[in-house]
Amino acid sequence: MHYRRRPVAAGFADYLACRNRECPASAEIIETSLIASLEQAFVLIARSTDESLLALAATKPVDTGPAQERLFGLLLEMDQVTDERKRAITAFINLKAITETEFSEQMKRLDGRLASLTSSIEKARQWVTEEQAKNESMGRLREMRSSGLATFAERTDEPGEVNQWLRSMVKVIVKKRGTRKRVRVEFR
After folding, report:
1. Structural domain boundaries of the chain?
2. How far apart (Å, rounded) are the C-alpha atoms in residues 56 and 152?
3. Do 152 and 166 meet the contact criterion of CB atoms below 8 Å apart?
4. In this structure, how many other beta carbons lie within 10 angstroms of the beta carbon of residue 174?
5. Tell me, what DSSP letter sits at residue 157?
6. What span, in angstroms and rounded, lies between the C-alpha atoms of 71 and 125?
7. If both were cysteines, with which of 31, 38, 43, 106 could 14 make a disulfide (CB 3.0 to 4.6 Å apart)?
8. Looking at per-residue confidence, does 93 or 17 come out higher?
9. Is 186 helix (H, G, I), strand (E, B) or coil?
């Protein structure tokens, strides 16, 4: 967003023009309306008595360490199966140590094991990624509940830091509805 000065009935007012990929269409809104919407959102989070929100804020982060260790173990096992596959190919082609039937049976077994490992690795990666995202989201929610209003109040003293903080915490969407403009604040 960037500022643009536009004349209004009682002189000049600061308008904010939304010109980025996240807004569905470019729109302008008076700065005070945007600030009021953000303050209202932070007050709702800080004073919320919604049980699910309070439970989410009180939830301890999930320890992804054991899952990451399991993922590391699966990756090591996949390397071992790949090495075993290479040895089987060498034994069949170069050394002629195994028959074609033994080779095809061993390849089927190793290919099945590789497919199983690949599936397990993808599931483990997905779980770790989802849990890390939940942990980050819960951390942002806790931060907004504890210091959101105070940080937002510092916007005139430290505008750069507050702007960066706001970008990491919320997404503001301005939509035109006829002559009215609606502001929606989404928490990241």
Report:
1. 2-51+147-187, 65-135
2. 22
3. yes
4. 22
5. T
6. 7
7. 31
8. 93
9. strand
